[in-house]
UniProtKB/TrEMBL annotation:
This is Cobalamin biosynthesis protein CbiX. GO terms for molecular function: lyase activity; metal ion binding. The lineage of its organism: Bacteria, Pseudomonadati, Pseudomonadota, Betaproteobacteria, Burkholderiales. The keyword Ubl conjugation does not apply. Keywords: Lyase, Metal-binding. The keyword Metal-binding applies. It comes from Massilia cavernae. Signal peptide: none annotated.
Length: 124
């Protein structure tokens, strides 16, 4: 296996329009990392689900995947559900490195950007 991928992992929703900001984020990330496949995967209600996306990437020969939970905090889905799914995927694809990082909303730079937005909104 060769190649790297970044999976932006989100909850999913019934409204298809909910996916739009995640697709924009995926496009922005892909533009900054042309040598890495950047894709979306969802916990529920939308496709592809994370196992299906990892299977697709494995078929393409991807050996190294980083999963970024696009959640504001480390709730039950990030603390319990995602680690279980990741462990199952590691067992199913032992030759693949699958790294899961913390929720995007826990990052200080992301929090500062959100604070800047909130402060600017209050001033307008």
């Amino acid at each position: 296996m060769a190649g790297r991928a970044l999976i932006l992992f989100a909850h999913g929703a019934r409204a298809e329009s909910w996916k739009a900001p995640f697709e924009r984020l995926r496009g922005l990330a892909q533009a900054r990392m042309p040598d890495v496949q950047v894709s979306l995967a969802f916990l529920e209600l939308m496709e592809p689900r994370l196992p299906a996306e990892v299977a697709r990437l494995a078929q393409q020969g991807v050996a190294d995947i980083t999963v970024v939970p696009v959640f504001l905090g480390q709730g039950g889905h990030v603390l319990r559900d995602l680690p279980l799914i990741a462990d199952e995927l590691r067992a199913a694809y032992p030759g693949m490195v699958i790294k899961v990082v913390g929720a995007v909303g826990e990052d200080p730079d992301v929090l500062n950007a959100m604070t800047d937005y909130c402060v600017a909104a209050a001033k307008s």
